[in-house]
């Protein structure tokens, strides 16, 4: 049976992870496409799916802002929260243009880091 330690090549673990990840998620994507095509846009099931997807995205963003890892962990919490709030406000004020919110938040993060000792 083929497993994680089957081959000695340095690249094998990366291929194994990519294939295992693809197999685990691709089936659900195809099922979503097949089932999703049969749902009406205003159906309760599709509304629930959108709500869950939005909640998951909000949770990931909140985790990145409040409990970051790597370089972002060195940025003060107040600066991260202000940058996210300002980016969201800019997004709304610019007619829901995503790039405006991203540039605003990123500019505040970088500018705040340069100004802080």
Which labels suit this protein?
single chain; about 120 residues; mainly alpha; 4 helices; flat
Proportion in helices = over 70%
- What's the tally of helices? 4
Estimate what percentage of residues fall within beta strands. Answer: under 5%
- Low-confidence stretches at least 5 residues in length (pLDDT < 50)? none
Q: Which overall shape is indicated by the principal axes computed on the Cα atoms?
A: flat
The radius of gyration is 21 Å
Pairing-aware structural class of the strands and helices?
mainly alpha
Mean pLDDT: 89
Order of helices and strands: HHHH
User: Biggest sheet, in brief?
Assistant: none
Count of β-strands: 0
The first-to-last residue Cα distance is: 56 Å
Can you give a write-up of this model?
- This protein has helices at residues 12-36, 44-66, 77-93, 98-115.
- By secondary structure, it is mainly α.
- The chain has a domain at 69-117.
- The radius of gyration is 21 Å and the shape is flat.
Short summary of the structure?
This protein is mainly α. It contains 4 helices and no strands. The chain has a domain at 69-117.
Annotate the secondary structure layout.
Layout: H1 12-36, H2 44-66, H3 77-93, H4 98-115
Helix pairs in contact: 3-4
């Amino acid at each position: 049976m083929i497993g994680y330690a089957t081959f000695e090549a340095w690249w094998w673990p990366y291929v194994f992870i990519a294939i295992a990840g693809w197999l685990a998620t691709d089936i659900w994507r195809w099922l979503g496409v097949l089932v999703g095509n049969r749902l009406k846009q205003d159906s309760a099931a599709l509304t629930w799916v959108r709500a869950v997807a939005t909640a998951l995205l909000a949770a990931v963003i909140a985790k990145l802002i409040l409990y970051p890892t790597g370089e972002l962990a060195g940025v003060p919490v107040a600066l991260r929260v202000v940058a996210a709030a300002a980016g969201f406000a800019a997004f709304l004020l610019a007619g829901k243009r995503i790039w405006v919110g991203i540039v605003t938040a990123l500019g505040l993060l970088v500018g705040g880091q340069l100004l802080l000792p």
